[in-house]
Design a protein that fits this description.
279 residues, Metallo-beta-lactamase, Chain A, 7-stranded mixed sheet, 7 helices, 23% helix, globular, binds zinc ion
Length: 279
């Protein structure tokens, strides 16, 4: 039987012997392929954790970038150095300058310069600019841009396209992956800037024959108010699921509240955790 696994490679938390950072990357084996979803913030953490977990980045068939924030794209040069044949999938606006502005503090949060250089050096036939969803193989699909339908969900922070804070960044490049497994859909989010519920609804709409099995990723609920959390949890409850693995930017409070409401079905994500699914 083909393997169908997801391993958390980089996360804000890590198992013993692994490194943690504010960043995210998943290693997915599905549909007979190895797919890297995001690359973490730094080359060092990605390289260390991959080595410690016996994961060979040179063996990846595909790399999907969830969006153009630095904490998901920093390990990109390492991946492209180690793997000359990898196919890269991402939205074209991943390259744009972007900022997070809190009161007077302006922070550049865009894809690092070295990662842009590495992408530019990639042969054109190896880069796939996703303006729509794309089937990566028989088991796994990249969502492409996710329609923003809910009223209570926002990108989850003070994100702007200019350092003066005039133009809001809706982070339209944000995309998710979903795997079709015998147990149901496995939805992987990078930061879920499109909104977790928008993301899940998009996955269900494209897979009307399946229910959600697992939701894994960063849900970016650190700044969410009580109303958004309540409505998000109600919507998840209504859709139904077997397991949620909150990672990366989900936020401690949101994770604690998820556990309070859904108990054992919440499993804390950290680098080194592997989840298996029946193909
Ligand atoms: Zn982000
Ligand atoms: Zn992030």
């Amino acid at each position: 039987m083909r393997r169908n696994t997801i391993t958390v490679l980089v996360d804000n938390q890590a198992r013993e012997g692994l490194l943690s950072e504010h960043g995210f990357a998943l290693w997915i084996e599905a549909g007979g392929e190895r797919i890297l979803f995001d690359t973490g913030q730094s080359e060092g953490v990605l390289e260390h954790n991959a080595g410690a977990l016996g994961i060979d980045l040179a063996q990846a068939d595909k790399l999907v970038l969830s969006h153009g924030h630095y904490d998901h794209t920093g390990g990109l040069p390492l991946v492209l150095r180690k793997n000359r044949n990898i196919q890269v999938y991402c939205h074209p606006t991943i390259l744009r300058p972007r900022y997070s502005i809190k009161q007077t503090e302006v922070k550049s949060v865009q894809i690092p310069f070295q990662s842009v250089v590495a992408l530019n050096e990639l042969p054109k036939q190896q880069i796939h600019w996703l303006r729509n969803g794309s089937l990566l193989n028989s088991a796994i699909k990249a969502s492409g841009p996710i329609p923003r339908r809910t009223k209570y969900e926002t990108p989850g922070g003070s994100f702007f396209l200019d350092p003066a804070g005039k133009q809001r960044d809706k982070i339209e490049d944000d995309l998710a992956l979903w795997l079709r497994t015998r147990g149901g859909l496995v939805v992987c989010a990078g930061c879920a800037h499109a909104g977790l519920i928008n993301t899940l609804r998009q996955a269900l709409q494209h897979n009307r024959d399946l229910k959600i099995h697992t939701i894994i990723g960063g849900f970016h609920l650190g700044n969410a108010d009580q109303n958004r959390l309540q409505r998000t949890f109600d919507a998840i409850d209504q859709m139904g699921f077997e397991r949620i693995v909150p990672c990366h930017c989900t936020g401690e409070r949101a994770t604690a509240l998820l556990r309070e409401r859904f108990g054992q079905r919440i499993s804390s994500g950290k680098a080194g955790n592997t989840y298996r699914f029946r193909p």
